[in-house]
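Bench notes, bay 3.
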Amino acid sequence: MTSDFSLLKNLQQQLTDLEKKQLRRQRRVTETPCAPVVQVDGRQLLAFCSNDYLGLASHPEIINALKEGADLYGAGSGASHLISGHSLAHHQLEEQLAKLFKENFDKAGCLYFSTGYMANLAVLSALAGKEAEIFSEELNHASLIDGARLSRAKISVYPHRDLTQLESLLKQSKANIKCVVTDSVFSMEGEIAPLPELLALCERYGAWLIVDDAHGFGVLGEHGHGVLQHFNLHSPHIVYIGTLGKAAGVSGAFVAAHHSAIEWLIQRARTYIYTTATPPAIAHALLKSIAIITSDEGKKRRSHLQSLIHAWRSAQQLQHWQSLASPTAIQPVIIGSNEKVMAVGAALLEQGLWVGAIRPPTVPLNTARLRITLSAAHTHEQLTTLIAAIHDCEASMA
């Protein structure tokens, strides 16, 4: 009993330390659907913190498709994909997604995963191994970092967007399998990775280019196909991971690549093989989501989102805080200290504005920031309210 109590006491002390450093995270309870205006802990707030970039999470047609999927397939899948859990809805979703990427791969295949985290773990652990070397972008998402560790490969981290250093590392590598791994849109900066240049290096040195397009699929590209369409990239070296719980508004993720790479994932990806398949109703709802993304409605939503991004960037008059020059729906405002960003977040919340206050270890020390995310569901009037509030906070708190 004494030993157990000591362990619990140690955890309590560590939680107290997090509190002192302004690093303890808290959950808020949302009581209404994901939308710009939400009910949170009994209060109505104007939210600029979700990743629902196209405003599809509450789209009535997708909601109806989810209901229809439950009627057709029931509440759960009952087993893993390789036992009896792979439904017609999963199959149709993978087929539809593969069609989106026929311009990027000679023989495109697609595999659906329950989450983006699981997809990233799957790709890195299955394609790399003890004999491989992974070249990981400095600002990669935690799921890519964990996937690299799980692979047991040698890991070399290259500085953010530093192509010269990456090429030097590739030249020096003696590994039989080389994997360059990067986010497409960096989730805390909003920048887009230099994928054409990265692909050229991978083709030159015989490496995989593994791209996590969590914040690009649905938003980037003429038809919302993501960063590969944005840059018009075509290569068997690419393994593409797209998220379906952000701009697509539902849940899960997928991997698109040459069909041989997809078949290998089916045989070796542990987060695919050893988990119960996502309920088929989710996949059925995603079929409607994909249809909207690639339709004229999706194009209009992306156009409106771009107008909001332009309006935000044009209105910036910050004197002390730094607004990063992001071309995407992610618009960070770097404030600096944990204490200051928490105070600003609280001040905005007092005014009815919900904005994410991001601190280490998610971002580097002394770069705590507001992570403002824009959605096609926002209006210009709502954005004007946010801009005025942030400028007022800076004037009174900087």
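Next record in the batch:
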Amino acid sequence: MITKPITILLIDDHPVVRTGYRRLLESNSDILVIGEADNGESGYQIWQESAPNVTILDLNMVGICGFETMHRILSKDPTAKILIFSMLNNVTMVQRVIKAGASGFISKQSGIGEMIHAVRQVSSGKIYIESELAADLAVHAARVENDNALLNSLSNREFQIFKLIAEGFTNAQIGEKISISPKTVSVHSMNLMRKLNLENTSQLIRMAINHKVIE
């Protein structure tokens, strides 16, 4: 009996990265890349048209960010399997993407075989976290810090805006990126500042850096 390959959609704004990982993935007979996109908007469109088994998604892209792309996909299909592939390899980001509905997380510093293993695990319905980060999560779970508890109190939308504010985007730019009005961004911003006990943007940026939400 011939087994159907695992179909993959790659969404990453770096063509060299996409080309390299396409070759890596398709060097395995059970994996087939059926689409590529260099931004979230076109990635979401291709996802709707191709219905891949697994979507490999970068978080930081031009246009709408990875979080918003994931939000749109999961709003359309809550069972969609999304593997986050990011430079931001830290416990906070892993917790947030899994909480937001991702099926897995690997960093761009991971070994060559890790993505293949991750794709197969996620395709089979399992949650996959890069081995090093999984170990960090285990340690982290034993000693939850106060700030992490505060960050975890944010909704997915609030955390998305928290990250974008820390990256220096204005309310208008954030609204455009995640398709809401600047006024709504402002309301979310005030709510998240209150939840985090922060008084200004400088404190927010410092918190984001300390917890490696931004580099």
